[in-house]
Amino acid sequence: MMRLSACAAVARAAFADRIAWRGDAFFGAFMSAVRVALALVLWIAIFDGRDEVGGMSLPVMASYYLIAVFVFHLDQSDSMGERLAEEIRAGKFGAYLARPVDPLAWFLSASAGRTVFQAAIAAAAMLGIGLVMGLAGTRASSLLAPIEFLGALAALPILASGLLSLALVNFMTAVLAFKFQDVTAFRIVQNSAVEFLSGALIPIALMPSWAKLMLELTPFPAIASLPAELALGRGFDSLPGTAIVLAAWNLGLYAAARAAYASLSSRYEEFGS
Amino acid sequence: MKALRKLSCLRVLIATRLSRQASEAGSFWAALIVDSLVFFIQAAVFWVIYLNVDDIGGWDKWRSVFFVGTFTLVDGLYMTFYFFGLLGIPEAVSTGRLDLYLAKPFDPLLHLAFGRFNPGSLFLSLPAFALIAVAAANIGAWPTIGDIAAYLGAVILVLILVFDLMVLMRVPAFWLKRLGAVNAAENALVEFAFRVPPSAYRGGMKILFRVVLPYGLIAAFPTEAFFGDAGAGGWAAAIAVVAAFTVLMRFAWKRGLARYDSAGG
Predict the structure, then answer these.
(1) Burial of A152 by CB count in 10 Å (0-12 exposed, 13-18 middle, 19+ buried)?
(2) Is A207 part of the contact surface with chain B (CB cutoff 8 Å)?
(3) Helical H segments across A142-238, by residue range
(4) Three-state SS for A53?
(5) Are A100 and A5 in contact, with CB atoms under 8 Å apart?
(6) A167-182 tens-digit pLDDT
């Protein structure tokens, strides 16, 4: 019980810290908007003379990118992982050992606090862009497809589970710094692969069926593609299976993160330790 | 004479860097693997798109493969020669490391840029050439000497342009403590440069991405030069844009240096 309250305190502190650096969050949301706009440049050209591509119309595609890109950039565990790896490398990891929660619990709690703040900013930015693009009101002339309220609601726990998986992977990548010191290359490889496999770069619906089947067995679609599909009223059939897959992955990744920390942290040396 | 001296200094700088890199096999392979993965993912994105459509704004699959191959080549070349050096400008300014470069009898910007020569990225040229050759063969466009010369000239031109753009994105380090926003904007524009073929530009987009923020030229212009689509007007416009950005870059760099102050300055 005490541990849970300590985790909540860490999350609140991380949230408050983000308020102090709110400019970064606003800029992050702005860059997501830029990415959506740039993706639309390509897709408007692809749709030139076509009604549908891979079963998606242009408004559905535009809405997909608007949601998937914003949702994908909610994750704050990557920057937390970068910070953790730098502190391990710089010999400042000792501070983590003095905290009232263990490093993994601190990492997950702080990532959650930061992500909630980013989500609040992103939701406001998405609403603004949605208004600009004509979501409110004239559906016929809108560049966006309508959002399904129930689907959007169902997307929230799926997204939270997906972000938890990603945070656990980011923690494992960060603790590799105990062994390799510089984990920048690991982070770039991981982030590039996750962006593609999550459907943030290109909708998973456009991929061949064997790729879709394989990705359904991973947590990646839950970080971008699945929340976007659900919010657009698609992909309800796979929801129960996805929930089971995500729960299994999170349990496995949690055990793996604990094991990785236990085996790698013994390598740490700090002046005075 | 001055240019010859600069070239001689660059040769020595690269030779020194090569001997140091030989003792850092880890970073060599890391750079190669990371760059190759980015290239692989972009190829996969276009592959998925062309599973669903035949063309993008009139560009077929092989023209886009050529475009990706060209971006990979340009990317490999600038990462080999100056990317990592220019990446260090903000740190050099904030820590005062720039003093070391100002004190030496060589252009400090070129010294900074080429001081982190990274041969690992040069290996990206191999898959790039393979992509370019396969795409050209499938299009049935066997190049003449003139096509190859035009292509190489265009690649050199965009390498100068990327150098200018990278410096311009880092010069604010002389005024600002944090460049996160500028870096994020640059990443988005570079991503745009290799993810969106020029056939997708409509209306004012052409002016925006080929003149004002000319990231759209990076892979597009050499591709157009190879296939003879650039024309005299296209060449004149590209040269004018690169010349203007080079002048702007040198001006901004000098203004930054004038503001630079450090413990030893």
Answers:
(1) middle
(2) yes
(3) 149-175, 177-180, 184-197, 209-216, 225-231
(4) strand
(5) no
(6) 999 999 999 998 887 8
What residues 31-70 of chain B have any CB closer than 8 A to a CB of chain A? 31, 33-34, 37-38, 41, 44-45, 48-49, 51-53, 56-57
Q: Where are the alpha helices (DSSP H) in chain B?
A: 2-21, 25-52, 61-78, 84-87, 89-95, 98-102, 108-114, 125-139, 145-170, 180-195, 205-207, 217-226, 231-259
pLDDT for residue A134 is more than 70: no
B residues 200-219 lying closer than 8 A (beta carbon) to A: 200-202, 205
Q: Please check whether residue A185 touches B, CB under 8 A.
A: yes
Taking an 8 Å cut-off on Cβ atoms, the answer to whether A185 and B49 are in contact is no
Q: Could A201 and B201 be called an inter-chain contact, meaning their C-beta atoms sit closer than 8 Å?
A: no
Quote the CA–CA distance of A223 and A162 in Å, as a whole number. Answer: 5
Contact of B108 with B88, CB cutoff 8 Å: no
* B145 shares contact with chain A (CB less than 8 Å): no
CA distance A46 to chain B (A): 5
Radius of gyration for chain B, computed over Cα atoms and rounded to the nearest angstrom: 19
Give the closest-approach CA distance of B107 to chain A in angstroms: 30
The one-digit pLDDT tens for each residue of chain B (265 residues) are: 566 666 676 666 666 666 566 555 556 677 777 777 877 788 888 889 999 998 888 888 899 889 989 998 999 899 889 998 999 999 999 888 888 888 888 889 999 998 888 877 788 788 888 889 999 999 887 888 999 999 999 999 999 999 999 999 999 999 887 777 788 888 888 888 888 888 888 778 889 899 999 999 999 999 999 998 888 999 999 999 999 999 999 999 999 999 887 655 4
User: Is B177 at the interface with chain A, CB within 8 A?
Assistant: no
The answer to whether residues B200 and A45 touch, using CB atoms and an 8 Å cutoff, is yes
CB contact under 8 A, B202 and A193: no
| Subunit contact A38:B34, Cβ cutoff 8 A | no
Distance of CA A194 to the CA centre of its chain: 9
B52 and A208: CB-CB below 8 Å?
no
Contact B34 A45 (CB under 8 A): no
Q: For B192, name the nearest residue in chain A, comparing CA atoms only.
A: A38
- CA-to-CA distance for B101 and B9, rounded, in angstroms? 13
Query: B195 at the A interface (CB within 8 A)?
Result: yes
User: Residue B15 phi/psi, 5° resolution?
Assistant: -60, -40
Chain B interface includes A240 (CB < 8 A)? no
Confidence category of residue A137, pLDDT binned at 50, 70, 90: very low
Over the stretch A182-197, which tens digit does the pLDDT of each residue have?
888 888 889 989 999 9
Whether pTM > 0.95 for this model: the answer is no
What is the token pair recorded at B238?
């590209």
If 0-12 CB within 10 Å is exposed, 13-18 middle and 19+ buried, where does residue B249 land? buried
